[in-house]
What we know:
This protein is of the alpha+beta class. Helix content is 57%, strand content 9%. The protein folds into two domains: 1-51, no CATH class; 52-270, Hypothetical protein af1432 (Orthogonal Bundle). Helix 7 packs antiparallel against helix 8 and helix 9 runs antiparallel to helix 10.
Amino acid sequence: MYDIPHLFICQGFFFNGKGDLSCLLFLLCVDIAAIEILDRDCLEIWYNIKIMTTELTFENIKKNREIQTYLEFTDRAFALMGYKEHGRHHALYCSDIAGQILQYLGYGQREQELAKIAAYLHDIGNVVSKHDHDQSGAVMFLNFLNLTSYDDEAFAVASAIGCHEDKNMDPVSPIAAALVLGDKTDVRHERLRTDDLRSLDKHSKVIAACRKVDVIVDKSRMVIDLSILIDTSICSVMDYFEIFLARTNYCRRASRILNCSFELHINEDKFL
Length: 272
Ligand SMILES: [Fe+2]
Ligand SMILES: [Fe+2]
């Protein structure tokens, strides 16, 4: 009998010295017969991935059982680590914001659709590991499509997923920029799993303090505005900046790709 998990752990180490790619290699490369030896559930998942030959639409992606499984497992892993929600609700929020931003700025229907797909899928790589989940997510998406020929839409979505954590770089396209704005503005307190403030770390306390979050697109001024109401009895405005400075700067970069400036209002005061 093959020792497949051991084999793939070894190959993961071969690739990056840390073994982070092991699970991804397992998902992408393992022989179907070998999976059958290991686990029939894996086999079923593999078959379902491979039959994603229907049209690439947001509705098809949302309905796909394998994508649902990835989001569910991702969220379960984050729950175990004590992190905020990273499942379907976060995915839906991001896709909604990403799609609306492009819609209000006058981008075409298909670009809106692709931005929604990329935003919905952006965190699926966490099913492998939080480390480099942007890149593993992009590869998982390409494999999921089972492409037989060049497809620029697939690469547009994959590159948007793959760069969504590159906070020191500009997003590679309007689709990527819309994804970043959807993701990095999702500071809603609803994502927390507990109301017990005593159990929260500094990051989670800032999220707990964000009582209302609005993303507003003002096309006449070409401005994307993030407007937040913070409960200052939970955290100060300075705490918000301390924790979220990098993501705020990333929102600025993303807005620039959309030919917009980025504004930030906290409790109706303008900070950017
Ligand atoms: Fe992410
Ligand atoms: Fe995310």
